[in-house]
Design goal:
The chain is an all-beta fold and 126 residues long. Helix content is 0%, strand content 49%. The strands form 2 sheets. Strands 2, 4, 5, 6, 9, 10 and 11 form a 7-stranded mixed sheet that branches. It has a 4-stranded antiparallel sheet with strand order 1-3-8-7, with no helix packed on it. It is globular, with a radius of gyration of 13 Å. The relative contact order is 0.32.
């Protein structure tokens, strides 16, 4: 079973940047896709970005395209989310997730993902 631990959240002013990391352990990720989701208070969890571990194909929500970049470090078994030009509406708890069936593509809905981290808070002030 894969365990995921996020880090890197915090408080930043609008226009600033943050880098989130997700450390994976307990399994081989070669057949996985890894995703980032976020959930703001009173809202449903929404897709942010995903990457196919084998091949590195990426996919982004329209709301973050051009501002966020997802990447993976195979040697360290980590997935990163570089967030630039942050906006107050990016404020949320950000979750890392792993999809066991990600070998052939990435999916953008939460029910596709099998393992989740505990989440890290990102707050963007105006």
């Amino acid at each position: 079973q894969v365990q995921l631990v996020e880090s890197g959240g915090g408080l930043v002013q609008a226009g600033g940047s943050l880098r989130l990391s997700c450390a994976a352990s307990g399994g081989t990720l070669s057949n996985y896709a890894m995703g980032w989701f976020r959930q703001a208070p009173g809202k449903e969890r929404e897709f942010v970005a995903a990457i196919r571990w084998s091949g590195g194909n990426t996919y982004y929500a329209d709301s973050v395209k051009g501002r966020f970049t997802i990447s993976r470090d195979i040697a360290k078994n980590t997935v990163n989310l570089q967030m630039n030009s942050l906006k107050p509406e990016d404020t949320a708890v950000y979750y890392c997730a792993a999809d066991r069936r990600g070998l052939y593509g990435v999916r953008d809905f939460a029910s596709a993902y099998d393992y989740w981290g505990q989440g890290t808070q990102v707050t963007v002030s105006p």
